[in-house]
Amino acid sequence: xxxxxxxxxxxxxxxxxxxxxxxxxxxxxxxxxxxxxxxxxxxxxxxxxxxxxxxxxxxxxxxxxxxxxxxxxxxxxxxxxxxxxxxxxxxxxxxxxxxxxxxxxxxxxxxxxxxxxxxxxxxxxxxxxxxxxxxxxxxxxxxxxxxxxxxxxxxxxxxxxxxxxxxxxxxxxxxxxxxxxxxxxxxxxxxxxxxxxxxxxxxxxxxxxxxxxxxxxxxxxxxxxxxxxxxxxxxxxxxxxxxxxxxxxxxxxxxxxxxxxxxxxxxxxxxxxxxxxxxxxxxxxxxxxxxxxxxxxxxxxxxxxxxxxxxxxxxxxxxxxxxxxxxxxxxxxxxxxxxxxxxxxxxxxxxxxxxxxxxxxxxxxxxxxxxxxxxxxxxxxxxxxxxxxxxxxxxxxxxxxxxxxxxxxxxxxxxxx
Length: 417
Prior knowledge:
Distance between the termini: 40 Å
Keywords: Chloride, Chloride channel, Ion channel, Ion transport, Membrane, Transmembrane, Transmembrane helix, Transport
Strand content: under 5%
CATH class of the largest domain: Mainly Alpha
Transmembrane segments: 12-32, 60-77, 154-182, 189-207, 219-239, 260-281, 301-321, 328-349, 361-384, 391-411
Helix content: over 70%
Shape: globular
Oligomer: single chain
Subcellular location: Membrane
Membrane topology: Multi-pass membrane protein
InterPro entries: Cl-channel_core, ClC, ClC-type_chloride_channel
Mean pLDDT: 93
Low-confidence stretches: none
């Protein structure tokens, strides 16, 4: 059976890991809710995505204390261990399950206290670590043999399922597996990744329900948005590429020794100070993105409010990574792109009416995410799913995604990724 997998074992593994990874995503969602409740007395929803009612001093202390605790955990965790990326795990590098789960829970805690980074990396890493442990434990058994190729596929699919279970987005989870991790398309990987993500989504929805993550308002995207999509594809394709270059540079110089005990608390001190008067900077960027999508018209005050949020969110997120924090950049990318979408959309609306600025924000978010992740299909399906858009959004989104990734490919050789 060398080099060939048992199809029955693969099918059983797909179902079992879908359940286990779905449960891990559910538990991480509950841990996030518990952290937000304890530190901020706040229950996050799509109507109230960020804590705007807490006293400024409470927001400040929550972010600061969260940063100090996370810095201590990451310092001791990394004395004899360095977090293993999902791509390296797919390639065969060992992801120690226990230490990875501590790392994952620290990320969720860090975001739950209001610190600025994405939370979507944690469930993906948990899924990958669980799947790798499963394949290593059972892969040598004569009845549960998996080829090296199928081991890679299982780990990639479990990472995507981890995302799907938190964001209730099964297509995005499957596409994440195929486009970013496994990088091959065939019936086998489509069946495994989609089945695993659907099962994880159903389990995750026990806590999260099946509500849109972002509220857009008008979900019908008319033809008037097509030229705007092309324009935003160019602009946010370039900006997303720059953001990705910044993330790469920050990651390369990340504090991992005793420096993290100083740098990360200082960064949280800054982030907490901003959060005390501008709560939308907190967390994974959902608050800022929703603020952009709620914008009806751009007055001078609204422009300044969004501009400050854009600069603060990008700067604090990059600073978090540089100072030793870990997490994702998907939702911060969505937040930044949504704000740019509103700015460009407001100018475009002077010439071509007939759309909302919330729709422009969705377009901007999708194209910025496309470039920052180098994943056009994942970005497209993610915004479709988390916003519950209808089919009319496909035309402007698809055109803009194509322009954004083309723009990014032209520019990215100028930056070291």
